[in-house]
Design a protein that fits this description.
heterodimer, A: mainly alpha, 7 helices, 5% strand, B: three-stranded antiparallel sheet, 6 helices, 9 strands
């Protein structure tokens, strides 16, 4: 998830590792608990996969020399991966976080993708509702209480989807 | 064979498009629950499925019948659960449940069948008068409605918000009753709800902006037999 977040930040705002890290920490505050410095190793991994590239320091210069050294930008493969990730199915095991990160990682003007993320989340909720245990006389009271809580949280999230969709629709009308 | 099919159904109420492009299928013996907010059109969708509303566009098919209107209230067809009680059907709950059947069998026979239907939904006080509404709570009315719907021996029960106003165990029992109809008697159920609580492994659909979303019906599982085992 942090990788996707960092990649989204590099795409939106190419720059040095620290500034990418700062953007990431601000953009995903409260969703991903990562400090700006956490971007460094992630950027190296992304570079290793060819999803971002960094300007190398000039040969022979000790301090990095060029102002562009360590300046990261996304490769076409990176942009492609980010787009594919935004519309891929959500990870059921941590769908709420996954959906939030995607909503924040998408371009603000790309309403169609935002709507797609909501559709994906609605699908996840229907799936989760079908995975809830059926009430049975064999289950313990505690078990019943916890699955009731799960059911009510799904209800609340379904309500949120309705609100979110109507906000997107109104936004789309405003822009037309 | 698919029991109920709604294809690209569109319904308007005045200028408002209630159902824009609603499609769904229900397989025999299947439990399907349609979640939606108020005014999303879920009652309208059930009424279309029951043949009570003719869609402006789209098709409704019921296997073995000419259409939903033809299948409603017929043996092996569709039953729409109603929770309103009419004086014209008789004074007691037993009368109310027996009434639809008296068109086909003798009053005595209808009464016996009504007893049986009520037994299946767990009894309320049979001699009570539904007119004195104060004595019946929502859950009880729902159960009587289900009993009355079962009188036509349907293969599909359409039921609008069976659990609304029910909490905790009462809610579980209501969903459990519907589930047992599917498991024990192969009656398919299409229910609407505003909460998924208690429904568990039903097929969950949602109705948003007049469109039904969610997984398609899964074809009935193939019967797996082991050598030497007798098919029941």
């Amino acid at each position: 998830m942090v990788r996707a977040a960092v990649l989204a930040c590099v795409i939106e705002d190419p720059g040095h590792a620290y500034s990418v890290g700062t953007t990431m920490a601000e953009k995903f505050a409260g969703v991903i608990s990562a400090k700006p410095r956490h971007a460094y190793p992630v950027l190296r991994v992304l570079a290793g996969e060819g999803l971002v590239e960094a300007s190398p320091p000039l040969p022979g210069s000790r301090s990095g020399g060029s102002a562009l050294a360590g300046w990261y930008r996304a490769t076409p493969a990176g942009v492609e991966r980010w787009r594919a990730w935004l519309i891929s199915p959500l990870d059921h095991a941590r769908a709420e976080m996954d959906a939030k990160v995607r909503l924040l990682a998408a371009r603000p003007d790309d309403l169609a993708t935002l709507e797609g993320i909501l559709d994906g989340y609605a699908e996840h909720l229907r799936h989760a509702a079908g995975e809830l245990p059926e009430p049975s006389s064999a289950e313990t009271l505690q078990r019943r209480l916890t699955s009731d809580l799960d059911a009510r949280l799904i209800d609340a999230q379904m309500d949120w989807i309705r609100d979110a969709r109507s906000r997107l629709r109104r936004e789309a009308e405003r822009r037309r | 064979m698919t029991l109920l099919t709604l294809e690209h159904v569109r319904v308007r109420r005045g200028r408002r498009v209630v159902l824009a492009d609603a499609s769904l299928e229900v397989e025999p013996g299947e439990l399907v629950v349609l979640g939606a907010s108020r005014r999303a059109g879920k009652s309208t969708l059930l009424q279309v499925a029951a043949g009570l509303i003719e869609p402006e566009h789209g098709a409704v098919r019921v296997s073995g019948f000419a259409g939903a209107d033809d299948a409603r209230g017929r043996d092996g067809g569709i039953a729409f659960v109603r929770t309103d009680f009419s004086r014209a059907m008789g004074a007691t709950i037993l009368d109310q449940v027996a009434h639809p059947r008296t068109a086909f069998v003798s009053p005595r026979r209808a009464e016996l069948e009504a007893f049986d239907a009520l037994r299946r939904v767990v009894a309320v006080a049979l001699g009570a008068e539904p007119g004195s509404g104060a004595t019946l709570d929502h859950g009880e009315k729902m159960r009587i409605g289900i009993a009355r719907a079962l009188m036509s021996r349907p293969r599909l029960l359409l039921i609008d918000e069976p659990t609304v106003g029910l909490f905790g165990e009462e809610r579980d029992e209501m969903v459990g009753l519907l589930r047992s109809l599917a498991r024990d008697e192969r009656v398919a159920v299409l229910a609407t709800t505003d909460s998924v609580s208690g429904f568990g492994r039903w097929r969950h659909l949602s109705l948003e902006d007049g469109v039904v979303e969610g997984p398609r019906a899964q074809p009935p599982a193939r019967i797996v037999q082991f050598p030497g085992e007798q098919r029941r």
